[in-house]
Amino acid sequence: MEEDRRRLLAITIALMAGLGIAASAIPFLASWQPSAETLAQATSPVEVDLSNLAPGGSMLVSWQNKPIWIIRRTQAMLDNLPSIDPLLRDPYSLVEQQPSYTRNEYRSLNPEYLILIGLCTHLGCSPQFKPSLGELNHKWPGGFYCPCHGSMFDLAGRVMKGMPAPTNLRIPPYHFIDAHTLVIGEDPRLV
Amino acid sequence: MLKSLFNWFLQRLPINEFIARHLTQYYLPKNLNFWYFFGSLALFLLFLQVLTGLWLTMFYTPTPEAAFNSIETMMREVPYGWLLRYLHSTGASAFFIIIYCHIFRSLLYGSYKKPRELVWLLGMGLYVLLLIEAFMGYLLPWGQTSYWASQVSTSLLSSIPRIGPALTTWVRGNSVVSGEILHRFFALHIIGIPLFLIFLVRLHLAALHKVGSNNPDGIFIREKSPPDKKSLCTVPFHPFYTVKELFALLIFLFIFSLVVFFSPEMYGYFLEPNNFIPADPLLTPLHIEPLWYLAPFYGVLCVIPNKLLGILIMGSTIAILFILPWLDRSPVKSMRYRGCYSRFALAIFILSFALLGYISTTIITPIKVFFIQSFLVLYFLFFFLMPFYTKYEKNKPLPKSILCGK
Fold first, then answer.
1. Three-class secondary structure of residue B32 per DSSP
2. N or C: which end of chain B has fewer CB within 10 A?
3. Which residues lie closer than 8 Å to B307 by C-beta, 6 or more apart?
4. CB–CB of A32 and B148 under 8 A?
């Protein structure tokens, strides 16, 4: 009897001590979460003036420390997009990599402007802008090429089939204040 | 007076017993060759890295704004700062060369086999820790390679199903590689991992000294006498081997100094050209090269088209080393007396590991993908076939004892 009681007590103490030690690990582990300051930076929007961006040109801005690309697509580029659909893994952007208001054929609010987070969905390198037809190979429709592991994306940031990258490039929340002023990091205000 | 004071001390802290047990009365086989020097050389490098690293922290600032410049200041303005830094960066590569020689010695003479399985496991634990330590240290200069190598490596975590993305954010403390991860890698690099390393080194040595060293003939020399007892075939570690190891250290320091003073960048293998450009979170360099000692593992990632599968296979290239003692079914330890299958397999293994690494440091083309995949298969075949070729090969007869005269 005495033996059993001692065993029970020993096990209880060991369990409670184990729980206590596990609980004391929480502050150490939780401190690695993004700090309040980091989170605040992540929600602060960035305003961009687009008046100097020529058709066919691109801009690189930083938001949340990430590269954000702004591409002003020409009519020819836009017209070419539907013909690429068979080469793509997710041509209709079914995977949620974009705000709902950019889930369309051009993956943008205003078809002319493409706004993307410039980080490959494979392992996070920043791909290169290769807009011209045939720039990479004779079938190249124009788009983005990742130097790290070779993933390719079209001019709407949609991933091509057979690439290491699993999904289309992500699109940040954004809206336009006027024809030439873009705000990145904020959804359009409901009217 | 002095003697009684000394005795007073020893009665309370018997360091003399410790020295006897591990140095002056720790007996080693007489036939150890130069392969056996790499263990103590590794210990020396640990000391050198801790010492130079400690000094580097006096001049280094772990913030994205200041890290790169603080190293440039160290290199140009701090008296002998360049030397401290080159000793540390060359030391990292030298550490891996020595560790690879040390591991090769174990494979060559069967030092991982019974009764030294724990010595091997602890050693492999040390190797993994050293890889982590080196990888974290590589982020600190905050150059382009530093930045994007960390971005890619931490992204690997995101391929873990369900918890992956949250885990990546937790490790980074941000959605991308930034000041938070720089700071925590700095803390882990300068104190967290080294403490753990030193602790494991102590266990590695304790486990070794319990069973004693293997030798190039791979035969047990202590069957009749208990461990740590003198016999005809053994000599005490000090002074017989300490003298030889000091000589090995001199030769090592000579070669090491040549690299430190004349080619610290080692043609881009020890310090990469892209890392002399400050980190730019908006722009990936055209060609990212992995560090040479991480290259075999990086290569695996490049040639496996599936994200999750890539990380799993990369993990198993290291994990499989841990079970080596239980894959080897040979009754013979040393390659000197093993049959031709084992010798051939070891040669192919070393060759495929080296080529896997070498090709991965160059620009990867489709044909190279094929080569890397082939070497990867050979790498794994060495382990998977080991239970068979070690069991069914014809070994040479073992000598009765090591050659040690009367």
1. coil
2. C
3. A122, A123, A164, A166, B159
4. no
